[in-house]
């Protein structure tokens, strides 16, 4: 079976690297299903998941936005932060979610902090949903 190489890279180093059957993720323009031989493209990513099909199984990586580069034989995800589902610290994400929710309650008038808290909340919810496979 044909494969495509996928790399998920963050400022702290590589998070995932393997030859796989298919990569699915959500770009800002919509859902993408990437098979070997895909047309080259570059796209910004949402806070969300990268789903990787390998040996008939699906692996999940949480990404906090970033960019996707597709070449016919390689997919590269450059993200500020990314975690494999099994490496997600659920307690930490729950605490981050609670902190963000509290900030959103307290700071309804301060726009900049509101946006920051909203993004923190989205990252936490994303991590929780990927750790619990509910998405
Ligand atoms: P927190 O407030 O818990 O730090 P955050 O969303 O602000 O959450 P980020 O700035 O996105 O955290 O990430 C900082 C680093 O910590 C990254 O390397 C990221 O992969 C890691 N990280 C953040 N939350 C978790 C988590 N719940 N489980 C595992 N790693 C995490």
Note down, in words, how this protein is organized:
The chain is 28% helix and 47% strand. It is of the alpha+beta class. The two termini are 28 Å apart. The protein binds adenosine-5'-triphosphate. Adenosine-5'-triphosphate (ATP) binds at residues 12, 64, 81, 83, 87-89, 92-93, 96, 120, 123, 127.
Properties at a glance:
alpha+beta, 8-stranded mixed β-sheet, single chain, 2 helices, binds adenosine-5'-triphosphate
Strand content: over 45%
- The SSE string, one letter per element, is EEEEEEEEHH
Shape: elongated
Mean pLDDT: 93
Unreliable stretches (pLDDT < 50, length at least 5) are none
**SS element count, helices:** 2
- Strand segment tally: 8
